[in-house]
Amino acid sequence: MLKRSIILGAAALMGSSIVFARNGALMSPAHRAAIVLDTHIDTPALLHVAGWSIMDRHSLSVDGTQVDLPRMQDGGLDGGFFVVFTEQGPRTPAGFAMARDAALIRALEIRDMVARHNKDFELATRADDAETIVKSGKRVVFMSMENGYPIGRDLSLMRTFRALGVTMMGPVHVGNNDLADSSNPDNGPEWYGLSPLGRQWVAEANRLGILIDASHASPEALDDILALSTAPVILSHSSLKSLADNPRNIDDARLRALAAKGGVIQINAVSSHLGVPNSRGRAPARALLGQPVANIAELQAQRAAVLKIERENPAPRANLDLLVAQIRYAVALVGIDHVGLSGDFDGGGGIDGFDEANDYPKVTQRLLAVGFTAEDLRKFWGGNVLRVLREAQARAEPSAVAGPQ
Ligand SMILES: [Zn+2]
């Protein structure tokens, strides 16, 4: 309610129902009325950077970051799924232990962020928490896991991560692992879908009420997941192969199968997924972005180096036209109940016009202009993902989901 009363107050002051966000984008009543969630926020990768705080306003041009509380407020972004990401590494006992510990630390960093700033953020562990948290005027922090590598070969760790607050998990990232083949394998298919352990992983996710995220899984692994899962499935940040031929993108037949099972695709705002491949000359920039940084000075130096490479290797980027085309194609194919959006911010996402957390109203404006209704936008921005999460959680074994909140 707090959110709405502040908005109404601002609108009354301006004598208009339109509120201008700080970046000049119109924040329409439809945008303000929706619960706006992004299903793939990689910002937790920054939480350990000394001198960088999610509470401060940052600039894309200065430090390259895309999400913080001031920009979330400007963009009417109510929250989303904050990612515990682990890069695929050696599939050895030592590798599994390192990945497990790194993921546990990342999950604790997210919990620590929420605890430190509990007037502005709140951890959500149930789908229905989102509405309550938004009404209290706070930002919604769901936790998700990108890559099942930290699970290694020990499925009992899924219960541990669920107890820490993880509500969505994907089995695999770049490179195959012990659970599944990747859409970007190092050396071709290994399991031709899910591994035998990956099939058990699906059953355990269902039992724990964890929403299964098939982004980054190979097409055959998605087929296996759709065949085995008793709950609907999400693609938390994936786009459409019909419009952009990229191994990360999904074909029409599989999108129909995902929707027929009640699932949702969150179109991903990454240039190469929208049909604008990265310039080859920018490979050094991508390598730089993979380098860890310890403090904000190093982050700013890295950003300056990346911008220099980009100036020297100018290349087109995807834009809102391409993004909206993907959204409209998906809605035409499977209906508004099965489509949403992810920025993949702070994880490689961002296009012209939708490049940081204050840009969400621009997408709403474009969708209103092509005929989306307020009810369509309510589903698109958060209603759909919350429905799918609610269904996954409703199918859990009641005794399996107990744990600290
Ligand atoms: Zn990803």
From TrEMBL:
- Name the domain of life this protein comes from: Bacteria
One Gene Ontology BP term is: proteolysis
Query: What InterPro entries does the record tag this protein with?
Result: Metal_Hydrolase, Pept_M19
Q: For this UniProt entry, which residues form the secretion signal?
A: 1-21
Q: Which keywords has UniProt assigned to this entry?
A: Signal
Q: Name one GO molecular function term.
A: metallodipeptidase activity
Query: Pfam families under this entry?
Result: Peptidase_M19
The protein's name is: Membrane dipeptidase
The organism named in the record is Sphingosinicella microcystinivorans
